[in-house]
Each structure stands twice: as structure tokens, then as C-alpha cells.
Design goal:
Layout: H1 2-42, E1 44-48, E2 50-66, E3 69-73, E4 78-83, E5 90-91, E6 96-100, H2 103-145, H3 151-190, E7 193-195, E8 200-205, E9 212-213, E10 221-226, E11 231-239, E12 251-256, E13 259-271, E14 276-278, E15 281-291, E16 302-319, H4 321-324, H5 347-358, H6 364-382, H7 414-431, H8 433-437, H9 441-456, E17 459-466, E18 469-480, E19 484-489, E20 496-501
Antiparallel strand pairs: 1-20, 2-11, 2-16, 3-10, 4-6, 4-9, 5-8, 6-7, 8-10, 11-15, 12-13, 12-16, 13-15, 14-15, 16-19, 17-18, 18-19
């Protein structure tokens, strides 16, 4: 029994070195593989695909003012005898604000009244003369029929009658003229009492008692009244590069130096077309409506505003550096991106349109029409370059899908891109014509907006790192806040996207 044990131990001792060698080789191989994998990972600079919010804003400055501001002036000249209101006073419509000395206009009224009485007396005299001329003419005309008066005397009597009648009409006109002149003096005297035309608050007062007001070609400004300070507005100067993104109804947040610890809210009310050019910089005025129910905000404050043009919540986003990366070939030239895997050209468009249709609450009939049009679209995509001719891609089988705008060195001329988009729009409208015919007016407008936004969207290729190798992934870009951009397509949260290549260690 002991001899057998010794034999077994001797046999086992012969295999121990072999086992050790195998273990060492296996460990070395595993270490080499891990090192190569780590080296492959370390060869790239990457950024992860994240999920979060993207808020896109346009910054601008402006000045707060009342929604309606009325400048009260004087239509008559004279010396100010009373000023009955002061800065910040609340006034009502018709309330007396100031008075101008009415003595001059009172004298003009008395003078005009006297002239009216004089004109009336002249009229009475002219009427008496007219009656006498009428009797004289009637008498001579009767005698002329009996051949007792010369014909020339009758003619003279008729001329005297016409003259008396004209003098009576002139006296009547003088009464009307003097009456109107007197009425003008009365109106001017009423205007010596300056009244508020609206309910509001006195913002400025430009007069003092004893001051002389001279109203000639332009009415002097006496008061400025804000009609309602509970509703205010901001006039922002927005750069021409950003004005295309501004639309009525967009929310606005702003701050004022006087209240640096608060942020106020507003809403775009109007985008005006009256552009202003200053030092070769073109800006457009954008009016923002502001609720000032608590009376905190004051007219004239300078504000720093942010117009929210897009607020995307819980979306996939990547750093903008990933959009600028392009592979470099052996010659050191940035290579044009090529989608891998032989995916149907323009498949991203079809997926986007399908997602948009799913959000439109279609009826079964509408859904069937959409599915048929979408199937036709996918069939044309599968046919290859020939079917993509309408998208401007004929003969470019290895290029990006129709509608893709390659960032970096692969971008096309903007006019060419516009032509491509228009051809694609025409083609898709033809493909989905039967589906569009089943939609009501609101659905059709929503579909046209979706189609335009989908075709006009920027599409690029990014490079995902998988097992140490990069692979091209076409994506559609959305909102961007300047550092990150919304993406949709074949990416998932946590994917590593290549942003650059590390220099090889020496």
C-alpha cells in the first residue's frame, strides 16, 4: 500500500510543472487581452449620451414702460396759475390737473359778443333799407305800367332793391362769423383748464405755477400719465440672427438691477417689423407683456431678458464636441461619414413621421392610409440610389441619407440644401397625399408643420464606441443650448460617443 502511494506522488510531481506552465501562459494571455482592450478604449476621447432637459433661450436687453402712456399738452398759450397734481399722483379721467390764466380769452369772448351785437344791429338796418327799397320798387313798377314813370326809374329802383338785399345778407353772414369767432374764444377759454384724458398715474410734471406756456406749432408737454401700471411691457432689441426663432406667446424671464434677487415673468406679445440698424448691427423690437399686479416694477427700469424659444424635457443629449468629430484617414484628411450596416436610406425620416402620426390620435381609416403611404415610402428607400433621386442623392450610394446635413467639413452649399429639402417636401406630399386627404383642417395643419420640421431637421453622423471600435450612427439633431444638443435616432442613454482621438504613447 505504501509503495502505491509513493508511485502516485511521483507521478503527480511530474505533472506539477506542466500545470504551473499552463496557468502562467493562461494568465499572461488574459492580461495581454485585457491590456489590449484597455488600450483600445484609451485610444478615444468619449462623452456619454445623457438624458435630461435642454432649455434654449435668446438673451436681450430692454426698458420697462407702461402699456399705455399719454402725454398731456396745452393747446393754448398763457401763464400757469395753478398746478393741482404732483409726481406719482393717481388721477381720474376728467380731473383738473392745472389751470392757465383765462383773462385773455375772457376778453376775446366779450369782444366777440359785442361784435355779434353790432352785426345784429347792422342786420336790422339792412333789413329796414331792404323793406324801403322793396316798397319803392313795387310803387314805381306799378306806375310804369300806367306810363306815369320812366323805365329808367324802375331800373334804378330794382338795382337799389338788389343792393339792399345783398347788404342784408352780408349783415347776416357777419353775425354767423362773429358768433363762430366768439365760440372759438369760449373753447380756448375752456382749454385753459387742463384735464386728465384717462385714469392713471402721473409720471412726469413739466410745469410750475407762474410759468408761461407758449403753444404755437407744437403743443408743449405738461404731464405724462401712465394709464395702468398693473400691466407693463418691455421693448427688447433682438439681433437679426435670433429674430427668426421668436414667436408670439413664448415665455420670457427677466431681471432688473433694482431687484437683483428676483426673476420676473412675461410673454412675447408682438414681433415688430421695424428693424433698426446701429453700427451695422440690425435689431428688431420685440414687445413683451408683463403682469405688475403687485406694483413692484417701475417704468424706465433696464432689464436683462431671456426669451425661451425651446424647452425640451427628459430628452437624450450629447456634448457638441461629438458633433464636430470626424474620422481621419491614413492621409490625414477628414473622411465623409458613411452609415454602416446597409440600413435603408432615410429610415430616420420614416421613423420620425411614424412617431409624429402616433401623436395625432388618428382614426382607423386615417391610420390605414398613413400605414399604406409609409410602406410606399419605405419601399422606395429600399430600392437604393435610384429611388432617392428626388432627394438629390443619385449616384451617391455610400453617402448620408436624404436630408442629412453633415456638420464639419461635409456640409453642402445652403442653396443646394434648400433645393434638396424642397424636392423632398414635394415628394413626401405626393406620397402622403391620400393620407392628407383624410385629415381635418387642424390635423392637416399639424401634419404639414410636422413634415416641414422633420424634413428641415439637421441630420448628422456621430460615432459610438463599442468594444473598442467606433461605429457610425445617423442621428437627428434637435434643440441646443450651446454646450449640449438633443439627439434622436439609434442612440441609447449611456452610449459612449467619440469626441476625438488620443495621441499614441511613445
Amino acid at each position: 500500500m505504501s509503495s502505491r502511494s509513493k508511485s502516485s506522488r511521483r507521478a503527480l510531481s511530474r505533472f506539477v510543472p506542466l500545470i504551473v506552465v499552463v496557468a502562467v501562459v493562461a494568465g499572461g494571455l488574459w492580461f495581454w487581452l485585457q491590456r489590449n482592450a484597455a488600450g483600445a478604449e484609451d485610444a478615444w476621447r468619449t462623452t456619454p449620451v445623457e438624458r435630461g432637459d435642454i432649455r434654449v433661450v435668446i438673451s436681450a436687453t430692454g426698458t420697462l414702460s407702461a402699456t399705455s402712456t399719454v402725454v398731456v399738452g396745452s393747446q393754448v398759450s398763457g401763464q400757469i396759475t395753478e398746478v393741482l397734481v404732483d409726481f406719482n399722483d393717481t388721477v381720474e379721467k376728467g380731473q383738473v390737473l392745472a389751470r392757465i390764466d383765462p383773462a385773455t380769452y375772457q376778453a376775446q369772448i366779450e369782444q366777440g359778443s359785442a361784435q355779434v351785437e353790432s352785426a345784429r344791429a347792422s342786420l336790422a338796418q339792412a333789413q329796414a333799407t331792404l323793406r324801403n327799397a322793396q316798397l319803392d320798387y313795387d310803387r314805381k313798377a306799378a306806375l310804369s305800367g300806367q306810363q306815369l314813370v320812366a323805365r329808367s326809374d324802375v331800373d334804378l329802383a330794382r338795382a337799389a332793391l338788389d343792393q339792399a338785399r345783398a347788404q342784408a345778407n352780408s349783415a347776416q353772414a357777419q353775425i354767423v362769423q362773429q358768433t363762430a369767432s366768439t365760440q372759438t374764444s369760449r373753447i380756448n377759454m375752456e382749454r385753459t383748464v387742463i384735464r386728465s384724458p384717462v385714469d392713471g398715474t402721473i409720471l412726469t410734471r413739466s410745469i410750475e405755477p407762474g410759468q408761461t406756456v407758449a403753444a404755437s406749432l407744437q403743443a408743449p408737454e405738461l404731464f405724462t400719465i401712465a394709464e395702468d401700471l398693473r400691466k407693463m411691457r418691455i421693448e427688447l432689441a433682438v439681433d437679426e440672427a435670433d429674430i427668426g426663432q421668436v414667436q408670439v406667446g413664448q415665455p420670457v424671464t427677466f431681471t432688473a438691477d433694482a431687484f437683483d434677487d428676483r426673476r420676473f415673468q412675461g410673454q412675447v406679445e408682438q414681433v415688430r417689423l421695424a428693424a433698426t440698424t446701429t453700427n451695422n448691427v440690425v435689431t428688431y423690437p420685440v414687445v413683451v407683456a408683463v403682469d405688475n399686479a403687485d406694483g413692484t416694477l417701475l417704468p424706465g427700469l433696464t432689464v436683462n431678458a431671456e426669451i425661451e424659444v425651446s424647452n425640451r424635457e427628459d430628452v437624450l443629449k450629447i456634448a457638441n464636441a461629438a458633433l464636430r468629430y470626424r474620422p481621419v484617414d491614413a492621409a490625414g484628411i477628414a473622411a465623409a461619414p458613411r452609415p454602416e450596416g446597409g440600413a435603408p436610406r432615410g429610415g430616420g425620416l420614416a421613423d420620425d413621421l411614424a412617431a409624429a402620426a402616433a401623436a395625432m390620435s388618428l382614426t382607423p381609416q386615417q391610420q390605414a392610409a398613413f400605414d399604406a403611404a409609409l410602406a410606399t415610402m419605405r419601399e422606395r428607400q429600399v430600392q437604393g440610389p435610384g429611388a432617392a433621386a428626388a432627394g438629390g442623392q443619385r449616384g451617391n450610394a455610400g453617402g448620408p441619407p436624404p436630408g442629412m446635413m453633415v456638420m464639419g467639413g461635409g456640409g453642402r452649399d445652403p442653396s443646394v440644401q434648400a433645393q434638396i429639402r424642397q424636392r423632398m417636401m414635394d415628394r413626401f406630399q405626393q406620397t402622403f397625399a391620400d393620407f392628407t386627404a383624410t385629415l381635418d383642417a387642424n390635423q392637416r395643419a399639424q401634419w404639414n408643420r410636422t413634415l416641414a420640421a422633420t424634413i428641415g431637421a439637421t441630420r448628422v453622423t456621430v460615432y459610438r464606441l463599442v468594444d473598442g471600435r467606433r461605429e457610425a450612427v445617423p442621428v437627428r439633431l434637435g434643440a441646443s443650448d450651446g454646450s449640449t444638443t438633443e439627439v434622436s435616432g439609434g442612440l441609447s442613454e449611456g452610449d459612449l460617443i467619440v469626441t476625438g482621438e488620443r495621441a499614441a504613447a511613445r
